Amino acid sequence: MSLAKPRLHFSSVMLVLGLLFLYVPMLVLVVYSFNASQLVTVWAGFSSQWYGELFRDEQILSAIWMSLRIAFFSASMAVCLGTVAAFVMTRYGQFRGKTALSTMITAPLVMPEVITGLSLLLLFVQMAQITGWPADRGMATIWIAHTTFCSAYVAVVVAARLREIDRSIEEAAMDLGSPPMKTFFCVTLPVIAPALVAGWLLAFTLSLDDLVIASFVSGPGANTLPMVVFSSVRMGVSPKINALATLIILAVSLATLLAWYIMRRNEAKRQQVLKASG
């Protein structure tokens, strides 16, 4: 009996090609971060000197710290505003202006970043002329701008989760005497917690990665990491940028593995509980 030869399916081939297209450039970047040459396209031997140069670059370190702070506060505020907007879109009945409100909430999803950044810049300029604030554009204006467009993404993620919830659970809790606020924190919030975490991570990533909007609403001395990287790349790619990108890839990979491990452990515990109760 002859064994059947394995066949390569078109979907498998395209999957492999897609993965190679995505990850081979990252692998090359990681390899060249250990290049001893100042020219990123010429290999001159193995060296880790650019990692030391990176940690001695005060401008990059300051930009990293500012970007992390802005991303954290923007994501946290976006989760609060986006969750409220999601409840308005999914839990409230029809009222005058609901369609317009829903359109305005989701508008930043399709609005070009150049238009968003320019409109926010004009807003801050007019506010400074009328009220005197903000006197200087900096971290606060970038935080407000990032919160504005990140809230739309969080609202969409949370709204999708709210539409899937069986509202009979909440109604049963209130029938048993639970006040609406306690029902929200004890019943609704744990159910939508995965969506809140996903929305927070998405908002954090979008804020950390933003260049266009931050370039419009920032001022002297307020440079985020993408702005510093972009300005340095225009003068020629420095090996320090390769080292920085390698560290970012390492941090994202570790965070992804940690999230996968936590989700797998929680799923295993849930299966054990279901088996025990069954």
Explain this structure:
This protein has 278 residues and is mainly α. The chain has eleven helices and no strands. It has helices spanning 10-32, 49-55, 58-91, 98-110, 113-131, 139-164, 167-175, 180-209, 212-217, 225-234, 239-277. The longest helix is centred in the last third of the chain and has 39 residues, at 239-277.
Supply the number of helical segments. 11
> Termini separation (Å)?
46 Å
What class would the helix/strand composition place it in?
mainly alpha
Strand and helix order: HHHHHHHHHHH
Overall strand count: 0
Compute the gyration radius: what is it? 24 Å
* Largest β-sheet summary: none
Uncertain stretches of 5 or more adjacent residues: none
Q: What's the pLDDT, averaged over the residues?
A: 88
Strand coverage percent: under 5%
Tell me the helix content: over 70%
- The coarse overall form would be globular
Question: What can be said about this structure in brief?
Answer:
It is built from eleven helices and no strands. By secondary structure, it is mainly α.
Question: Which helices and strands, and how do they pair?
Answer:
Blueprint: H1 10-32, H2 49-55, H3 58-91, H4 98-110, H5 113-131, H6 139-164, H7 167-175, H8 180-209, H9 212-217, H10 225-234, H11 239-277
Helix pairs in contact: 1-11, 2-11, 3-6, 3-8, 3-10, 4-6, 6-8, 7-8
